[in-house]
C-alpha cells in the first residue's frame, strides 16, 4: 500500500457499529475481491472489496472476515482468515500480512490461516442460528461477473440450508453513509491530492495539447502523493466532448477557444474524491461561456445550502431543478412556454441538465446510502450541476465534495480548489 497506515481504532469502531445491528446468535462473513484475469497470465490490479476494508482495514486478496458477537468463546467472535505467507511468496509477490501485522492493522486478535476457514466455519455454524450474507444492493450496481462474495453465498446456502438468512447490505448502507472523523480526514486527503493535480494542469493546459496528456499530468501528481491513482475513470473532455456525460476516450486535441471539462478525482487509502471543473483552453472565457459558467456555479452554490440534516434526496433534486430552470430562462435556453408545457416526469430543464445533482461519496465514488432516508450530519455528498449545449459545442459542469454539518451549511472539502471564473482565468494566464 502507498498510503500511511490507518489507526486500527477506526475499524474497531466500524465493527462495533455493524455487530450492534445484528440479530442475536448470528454470524456475518465478508470476502475480499478476486484478482481478475485479463488473458494469458495478466491480471488487473487488485482492488479490495470496500466492505471488508471498512470493517477490518485489510487491503489484501484472499482474505475473509467473520463476525460472531454472541459466540460462546471469545476467539470466535472476530476472526480474520488470511492466506498463509512464506518466504517464497515474499520473494515473488512481496510481503503479505502476518498474524501480528494483521492485528496491528485491524485490531482483531484471532487470525487464522485461510486453509482452516471451512473447518472453523463448521464449528461456528453449530452455535449460530442466522447467517448475514453480503450482497451488492447499491442502486447503481450492474453486476455481470460472479464475485468471490457471490461464490461464497452460493456455496454456503448449499452446505447450510437449515440456517436463517439475513442481509448485511442494509446495515452497511446506513453505517457506511455516516462517516467517522478519521474517514473525513482520509477523504480530505484525497481531495487535497486532487487539488494538487488540478493546480498542476492549470499550468499545463494550452491550445493543441491532447486530452490524454492532461490525464497523464493528473496521474503523475496523484501517484507522487501516495495515491494509487484515479478514484474512477477520468473524464478529460474538450469542446463538444463535454456533452457526452461519460466521455472517457480522452484522445482528442484541445483547440483554442474550447472549454475543457475535467471530471477527475484522486483516491487515497481506498477513499474517493470527485471533482469537476471546466476551464477555457485559451485562458479566458468568452462572454457566453462565462454567463453559462456563472449560472452553473450559482446553482451549485444554492444547491449546497440545501444539504442539511433532514433533507430528503428526492425533494432536494426537485428544488435544484427549480434553480436550474430559472438560470436556463435567464440564459435564453428555455422560455416560459417550455416550462408551462413541460412533462412533469421529464421537466424542461432536463434538456440541458439531464443527470442528478448529488450522490453519497466515500469508500466508493458513488457510495452507500439509502436515498429514501433523511440526510444526516457527517454524510459526504457531491454537488455537481451542469449545463450541456451541443448546438454551441460546449458543456459546463462544476462539482465539489461536501460534509453535512449538524448546524448550518455543509463543509466544503474542496474549498481550496479554484472555481470562480476570474480565479481560473488568473491562474491560467499567470
UniProtKB/TrEMBL annotation:
Could you tell me what reaction this enzyme catalyses?
Release of any N-terminal amino acid, including proline, that is linked to proline, even from a dipeptide or tripeptide
Tell me which cofactor or cofactors this protein depends on.
Answer: Mn(2+)
- Recall the GO molecular function terms of this protein's record: aminopeptidase activity
Q: Which SMART domains match?
A: AMP_N
Keywords assigned by UniProt? Answer: Aminopeptidase, Hydrolase, Manganese, Metal-binding, Protease
Q: What are the residue boundaries of the Aminopeptidase P N-terminal domain, all occurrences included?
A: 6-142
- Stated EC number for the protein is 3.4.11.9
Which EC class is this protein assigned?
A: hydrolase
Report the family membership.
Belongs to the peptidase M24B family.
Report what the protein is called: Xaa-Pro aminopeptidase
Annotated source species: Flavobacterium jejuense
